[in-house]
Structures are given as structure tokens and as C-alpha cells.
Amino acid sequence: MNRDSSETSTIDSRAAASTGVYAFYLAGQWRTSTQIVDVTSPFDQRVVGRVSLAQPQDLEEAIQAADKAFAVTRKLPAYARQKALAMIAAELNGRIEEFAQCISAEAGKPIRAARGEAERAAFCFQLAAEETTRLNGDLLALDALAAGTNRLGLVRRVPLGPISGITPFNFPMNLVAHKIAPAIAAGCPIVLKPATKTPMVALMLADVIARSGYPPEAVSILPMTTETAAPLVEDERFKLFTFTGSAAAGWALKARAGKKRTTLELGGNAGCIIHSDVDVDHAVERCVAGGFSYSGQSCISVQRIFVERTIFAGFVEKLSAAVQKLRLGDPAAESTDIGPMIRLADAEKTESWIAEAVAQGAKVICGGKRSGTLFTPTVLTGTTETQRVNCDEIFAPVVTVEAYDDFGEALARVNRSRYGLQAGVMTRDIGRLMRAWDELEVGAVIAGDVPTYRLDNMPYGGVKDSGSGREGIRYAIEEMTEPKMLVIS
């Protein structure tokens, strides 16, 4: 349901809850407009919440507030930023189940995985609290040349200024945390647009932030239309634009961003190499986890598996057997392994890509069936590099598995992609691992595991079409700050 109006009103969060409509959070105030959208479950399409959308004048007010708040946040001492972040982390840790239930309802994420996401988000704020005390600078001796005799250089990191951010649906709490937590740690105000399909958990998080003691004018979380959100990208009052989403959208937004710094964490078609010297059962277990968790809707989900030919047949047999044991169904059920895809259109796209590959000679080992937004976990073989199931990001519970004869050939096949986010290399040979680290064109090589492995303190980001810049709390703080030097005689 959509009701278009530019009227907005100021209320408190309790009043918003009593009306059944989530208000948006604008610089310390809870606001509603008469433009309200229903948030529906990807599983059964029931309405799980209703959200009020910010209007253009609301966004302008949030930008003005962020611009003004920077005069305060840039001077906040580390202990004050640390205290606010620690308070957020503590409250989140006490409310894991509540946040997980919201994630599961609006994103269709199986409840066990939703709990893991909520725990990770709490960890992000705790880690950011710790990083506020580690924003160290450098002392430089400048006498490398005679002109520098008796001079010292002092370098410290200073916040860039107001930040704008846009986050996707697939990790609707943790990826919001990956924008907001480092912004607070750096002393930067932030205005953030959560994903259209999953705004509620971000607004729940805003309610926690509002009680943290961080200057309220410095954070705004505004569900809004793509058209309304244009100033997040284009307005020069923002000094950094941080985006997580598809490659096509990310690079198009960067072209509109002007002079501001941008960080883009975009898509991938992650490759995983399985050499013959590994434990095949372990490799199968990890590929199942990496390829099918949250219906493959992760930018580092295993998509392309390359297996040395001597173990290929056995690997495929075991992979198929394990995949067929996955339980597909209601994300609220504790027993569910695979829930729905976020949109019916995405499930239909997946179905068409598989049909296209089969028509060109590929074989479905298992799966390949759709029922509404539910898609059975699928393993394909006999595919080619030019088929969309390989060369594009499928973002679905689908993997392709192909044999290789030479390790160098496998590395080259991983690299023959326009993406380069992460890759997994499963071998016990340190020489092969070092060669992979040297040759693979990715942001990270995960040794002995799948490319889906990520911890929130890792530098995270890709090369080629997979983006630019890095996330991971410490590394995001670096993106949100810059070095400033003082030379002393």
C-alpha cells in the first residue's frame, strides 16, 4: 500500500509503536509522513510491519543537521565515542532474539542465521568502541634531507565530515552496523537509507542509538524512495558516500557522486578451488554452508566450484547428497536451513538462468525447482564460463561445479571474471596457497575454506567490478578519516 503525501509530523517512538507504523529517525526525532508502505514477508507475503517514508524536505533537514553536528562530533573525545558505542553494543547483546525475529520476518532469513547476524551487529559496535582508542597517528623524523634538520612531523587522523550510506536487504542489521558503528567511532555524522524491503530492523537499531549519548543530530535513518534518496549520492555536503549493493547500481551511483570519497562493496560470483589433497567431506560441508546459506543471497556466496579431476566424481556425489538434505521452508522454524528468496522476481530470474544453461548443455545434478519464492538448492555441472550462471552474480541457492587438471588452470578460471571479491582455496600445500594469494585477482583469499568466510574485523572489499575501498570496522574508520600533518621546528 502506498499513500503519497509530503505531510510529516513529529512524534516519539512509543507513539509510533502504538499506531502500528514505524516512524523514521531524523536527527534525534521520530517522524512520520502520510506516505506509508507495507513490509511483507518474503515467505508468505503477509504484512509484517508498516513503515513511514521520509520525504525530500525530511532528507534536507537531516543533511542540515548532520552538517551542523559535525562541529560537535569532530571534537568529541575518544572516551565519549567509546562510551556511546559500548552502550549500544550492551543493549544489542541483551536483545538478540528480538532483533533476530525482526530480521527473519522481514528478510526471510532462517531464524538461526538471523540470530548470528544480530550477534555480529552487536560485535561491530563493541569492536568500534575498542577502535576509538586505537586511532593513532605517526611521529616522523624529517631529517632525511638537510632541509628537515631539527624538524618533526606529527600525523593524526581526523574525521572527513558528514557521511551518507545506503545498505541492502541481505544483512539488514549487520550491514547497517558496518556503516554506523565506524562513523560514530570516527566522529562523523551519518545519514543512512536502509533497504526498501527490510527497513524495520534498522529503525529498531536507531531506537538503541538514540539512547546511547552520541549527539542525536548526528544520526538519521530514513527509509525513503530511490528518487528521494538522490541527495545522499549527489549532495556535496556529504564528504563520503558508502554503498553496499549490486555492481550495476554501485558504479552508476559512483558516477553521480561528484568529488566526494566513495566506498563501494558490490557483488561477486565467488570461486572456490578444491584440490585433491584435502578432506573431501570437509570440503563438501563447507561448500554447502557457503553456497546455500540464506538462499545464496550473499555477495561472497560460493557460486563457482573448481575441483581437481581425480576427486571430482566423488566430490559431486557427496555434494549432491548433502544439498538434498537441506530443509527448505518457513524461516521462522528452527529446523529450516533454506528460506525464501527476497522477491518473486529474483526466484523467477534464477529459474530462467538455469533453464538457459540447461538448454546450452548444462546438467542439473539436484534441485532447480521453484515454488513461489522458495527455490530448491541447486547444483549444476557441464556449464561454460559465458553462461550467466557463471559469469554474472546469481545471488541464489545455486552453485556450478567443474573439474580441472592443473592448479594454475583453476586459478586462471577463477580470475576470468569481471568480479573479484573473495576466493576460497582448499589445499594443504603452502606453496599453492602462496601462489593463489599472489595470483588471484580478489580482495581476499580464504585458505582452507570457502570464500563466504568473513569476520567483522577483517578488511572487506573487492577489485574489478566488485568495488573499491574496504569495510571491516578499523578499515572503514580509515576510509572515514584522513591524515592531517603538523610540522614542528
Explain what you see.
- The chain is 38% helix and 22% strand.
- With 489 residues, it is α/β, with parallel strands linked by helices.
- The strands form 7 sheets. A 7-stranded mixed sheet has the order 16-19-20-15-14-22-23, sandwiched between helices.
- The N and C termini lie far apart (66 Å).
- Mean pLDDT is 95; it is low at 1-6 and 11-16.
Topology diagram in text:
Blueprint: E1 8-11, H1 13-19, E2 21-22, E3 24-26, E4 29-33, E5 36-40, E6 47-52, H2 56-73, H3 78-93, H4 96-107, H5 111-131, E7 138-141, E8 152-159, E9 163-166, H6 174-186, E10 190-193, H7 200-209, E11 219-221, H8 230-234, E12 240-244, H9 247-256, E13 261-265, E14 271-274, H10 280-292, E15 304-308, H11 309-323, H12 344-359, E16 363-366, E17 370-371, E18 374-375, E19 378-381, H13 388-391, E20 398-404, H14 407-415, E21 419-420, E22 422-426, H15 430-439, E23 444-447, E24 463-464, E25 467-468, H16 473-479, E26 481-488
Parallel strand pairs: 2-6, 9-10, 9-12, 10-11, 12-13, 14-15, 14-22, 15-20, 19-20, 22-23
Antiparallel strand pairs: 1-4, 3-4, 5-6, 7-8, 8-26, 13-25, 16-19, 17-18, 21-24
List the main descriptive attributes of the protein structure presented here.
489 residues; alpha/beta; seven-stranded mixed sheet; six-stranded mixed sheet; 26 strands; 38% helix; globular
Strand content: 15-25%
Unreliable segments of 5+ consecutive residues = 1-6, 11-16
SS-based class: alpha/beta
Largest beta sheet, briefly?
Answer: 7 strands, mixed
Taking all Cα atoms into account, the compactness measure Rg is: 23 Å
Numbering strands along the chain, what is their spatial order in the largest sheet?
A: 16-19-20-15-14-22-23
CA-CA gap between termini: 66 Å
Total beta strands: 26
Task: Name the average pLDDT.
Answer: 95
Q: Which descriptor suits the 3D outline? A: globular
Helical element count? 16
Helix content percent band = 25-40%
